[in-house]
Amino acid sequence: MDTEAADTTAVDITDTAAIGSGDTADTETTDIAALEQVVAAVERTQRVQDVDGFLALFHPEALWTTGHGKVLIGLDAIAEFTRAVLPAADREGEVTYRAVHTQFLRPDVAAVKVRQVYHSPEGETEGAPLYVMTKQRDGRWLLHVCQNTEVRVA
Q1: Are 143 and 40 in contact (CB under 8 A)?
Q2: Is the CB of residue 145 less than 8 Å from the CB of residue 57?
Q3: Under 8 Å between Cβ of 110 and 104
Q4: Out of 3.10.450.50, 3.40.50.2300, 3.40.50.1820, 3.30.1450.10, which CATH number does the structure's domain 19-151 have?
Q5: In this predicted model, what pLDDT tens digit does every residue of 89-101 receive, in sequence order?
């Protein structure tokens, strides 16, 4: 087994000093910024209920488990669900998303932990999504495996 291929690099995206220097660090910094842009696009497309924009963020073979445990396999299933729920979403307040940790599993595969906060008149609630994204040949990062998890306060 090639141990170099199995090497992973954990990067706390709030601490850019941990990234280092050199070409690899420059690429990693660029990729982290691109991953953060995908997270920002999730927030933006959901806020304005842009179904097509949201779906464009997913890999065709994506797997998504919703915050309520519904498993969606493939872009067609994700599209069917999204077209049914996103336009009908009636929110008082807004949801914010922030990437809080990125770990590269390979140079073209990254796990991104997200802090999701629902801001409403009744107060704030949180979600803790995990997005596994894959880098495409054209350089775009797409959502490939997503798990939304509700954070319950005791």
Answers
A1: no
A2: no
A3: yes
A4: 3.10.450.50
A5: 766 778 999 999 9
